[in-house]
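We recall that each integer encodes one residue's backbone shape. We quote one record:
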Amino acid sequence: MGTKKRKLRSTAWYGKMNKDGFIHRSWMKSQGLPQDAFDGRPIIGICNTWSELTPCNSHLREIAEYVKRGVWESGGVPLEFPVMSLGETQMRPTAMLFRNLLSMDVEESIRANPLDGVVLLGGCDKTTPGQVMGACSVGVPFIVVSSGPMLNGKYKGNDIGSGTDVWKFSEAVRAGTMTMQDFMNAEAGMSRSRGTCMTMGTASTMASLMEALGLCLPHNGALPAVDARRQTLAHLSGRRIVEMVHEDSTPESILTHESFLNAIRLNAAIGGSTNAVMHLLAIAGRMGITLTLEDFDSAGRDIPLLCNLMPSGTYLMEDFCYAGGVPAVLRRLASHIDGRCMTVTGKTLAENVKDAPVWNDDVIHTLEKPVLENAGIAILRGNLCPGGAIIKPSAASPELLHHRGKAVVFESIEDYKTRIDSPELEVDKDSILVLKGCGPKGYPGMPEVGNMALPQKILEQGVTDMVRISDARMSGTAFGTVVLHVVPESRLGGPLALVKNGDMISLNVQERSLQLEVSDEVMEQRKAALVLEASPHTRGYYKLYVDTVLQADQGADLSFLVGSSGSVVTRESH
């Protein structure tokens, strides 16, 4: 790509021949930068979520060095900076509580510093959307480089997948069909390298959707973390971001409503995480693009599942990479996507994938012979979820997608943990498990507990799935007939808060319906008697979050963060 000179944002710092310019340049020169680093070269920030507390991102310091190579080669100056890192497997009460905090960290770090473009290094579930949300709110050119999935897990000669097989093994131990020793042996073989979950969980989903949105180079979604080609992709991304700065290739020039619809369609085709719903809604909100739950239903409803990947299928991300990765899926989806959408490559989405091969039709199926017809995330409506709820049909039991049963209600996660395995629990295989108090405000942070483990007495009968309903989320690696993101959440006194043991609930995914079979009169009586407890969180970020977080159908962003701040900061520091 040819480049042209344009006035750079960083000249407001480094172009001044006065006291302020002296301060900005002189202190940076203490790191060994020459004078010509400040003579009109693009200053490229490398926004790094590296952390030893985030195993998925623990190699990003190394990846950053490859980005720097590319930046220097293209005439830019790379400057790496840290932001908050969100370790999905380590943080309490849930990493989702801090996604918006990370976005604030990214937004203000970019705005406050002399950066002309940014490379976002993330991977673990909430780091990618958090970084993208923050960068979108500033509006400078940026490109995403994900950490990549780990190698396939191995146990007794077979592949095992992060999360997906953890849930299976845990249930097997509780059912008495797997020994604790075997459980521990499986643990030792699960995570064999650096990188994110190697199932199509939220991390791999968001890395893949970055390709559909046009925010990264092709193959960002599936290259394993330890594959040398991941380093090459980082190197090339470093080159490309410098060109993007010269071209003024901002997120506004790439992200459109159609870009988001492409991402929704890809999410259906890969069997992507339900968490993508909230993350895409939040990113769109930062861009001022109207995206709704109905867009997910209408855009994804007729898209078949093409990828035979856990948790909706058999294979893992390493296999997906070798089969052709996201470009191969996008090419096979060509008749369903808008290939005219621009990308960070400077080319359209269609141009990026026009020659993408498929090397294994059992991993990436054809439109004519998909893994499953109509795999998009379904948006449910009804008196139990007037603001909407979601379910992932590709990960559910087909026979439960149209189901009616009695509610077994848990008022909180503590109530659930106390009673779920009690012999006195009144439950049968047709019951519907209902969990309250796990929405954005209620937990707080909306944890991944919606895929509730089944009662032990039910597991012992050989039952492996039941309908479950909550205002929580579930891991992208999880599976089951699980209704999630119920809006309004129970903490706000939504209909979910009014469900009682024994109430009949009917689910009909084909008709997109979720109904509590209780009269309006009784519902009003229950609502009048409902007492909502005040939040116990009275200080710090928890309070800020609880006071301002939006509901799931609006992306669970903080109300005052929706939209953008822009990149202009006029006041000097001295």
Observations:
- The two ends are 39 Å apart (CA to CA).
- The chain has a mean pLDDT of 96.
